[in-house]
Amino acid sequence: MAVTTCLTWLQEKRLQNHFGGKQFSLLYKASVHEFYSKKLLEKCCNQGPTITVIHSENYVTGAYLLDSLQEEREVPVILFALQETEISEYKIGSHRLETLFYDMYSDPFGFVVDIKKPPAGFWIDLGNKRVAMSSKVSEELGLPQPCITSFQECEVFRCEDLFDKRKEEEVTVLKRTLLFAMSTYEPYKDMVHQIRILLLGPTGAGKSSFINSVKSIFRGHVTNQVLVGCDATGISKKYRTYPIKDGNDGQCLPFILCDSLGLSEKEGLCEEDIVSILKGHVPDRYQDRIHCVAFVFDANSVEQLSGEMVAKIKRIRREMIKYGVVHLALLTHVDSMDLITVGDFPDIYSCVPVKLKLETVHRKLGFALSDILVVSNYVSEWELNPVKDILILSALRQMLWAADDFLEDLPLE
């Protein structure tokens, strides 16, 4: 069985962000590999920077080693303490392993080092499950006395940059694969010339920004063709359709994104307008019905949707179900959520804050969890980021698949 950490997702994420956006790979767990420093060294030697985590009853402490664990070599050390959501640290300079771990270097003839006076101000006694720290270290880390406390578990992780060369290549390959899939996409059995995707949602949720983001990816540079702003009444004053062109040959791709006036409690797009759009009764350069609807919400404010807005969205969804139109939810601004960084994007749906947002949308608005997508739009950036691109392209692919389901379910005529 795989060895798993005792850190919660939140604890691990705070430590990763605190030490410069790292990812952790568990190398050693004392309860599995023995409470013995020699075992720790066997597992963790020459593994690059590591973080040793001590699990005490009320808090987590440990040492971040900026270089590989090696015998008879000094390593720069940063001590830390994690209490609830706060991390404090204390740099103690460079030290050899014997000044940090006790049982590996005790005298074989019975000489016992005084653990009350740790040479580095911090000492892990694995064999006796104790950690000692000087009064100075305790004070700097904001920890209470006494200076010697027992602990339940010790873990050591290898610390790696979130995006090394190998991971960057994986992201680039995935983006290239998604772009090819979108460029060669054909609607189900060629039943229509182009899939039409309608974006609906509260004012300022990010509908227009999503269109700009999709256009930017296919053009190969950031573009802002669709006007975006912070007007409280919304920027999109009418229904508009936006074809997407392939940046390589300039040909229109087989899908169109449709922007609309923002939803609000009393103003904005009404249910009757939406029904007309769904049926294709609203002219805009090209007349056809809608094949998929994406409800767009700001991930940071979805909990604050008013009762009137929730009721309005549910009424609109009932109309869509009545007409057989498939619909999804799209959460934007995921990059500005607490603790979430661009490095989380490749595995975004496993992040605890994102899972909680999905649960909120599911519970509040009734969308199936599998029908809720997350993206980070291009809002202020000047350059494309392949990690953001794969989120946007993945969401677009889900919309096209949903549209294909809609076409497949249409009665034969």
Explain what you see.
30% of the residues lie in helices and 23% in strands. The protein is built from ten helices and 15 strands. The chain has a six-stranded antiparallel sheet with strand order 1-9-2-3-4-5, sandwiched between helices. A six-stranded mixed sheet has the order 11-12-10-13-14-15, with helices on both faces. Strands 6-7-8 form a three-stranded antiparallel sheet. A hairpin with a 4-residue loop joins strand 6 and strand 7. Helix 6 (207-219) packs across helix 10 and helix 7 packs parallel to helix 8 (307-322). The chain starts with 8 loop residues before the first helix and ends with a helix. Mean pLDDT is 86; it is low at 104-111 and 229-236.
Unreliable spans are: 104-111, 229-236
The main pleated sheet reads as: 6 strands, antiparallel
Spatial arrangement of strands, main beta sheet? 1-9-2-3-4-5
Indicate the structural class: alpha/beta
Note the total helix count: 10
Overall pLDDT score: 86
Strand content: 15-25%
Helix content: 25-40%
Order of helices and strands: HEHHEEEEEEHEEHEHEEHEHEHEH
Radius of gyration, taken over Cα atoms and rounded to an integer in Å: 27 Å
Q: How many strands?
A: 15
| Structural shape | elongated
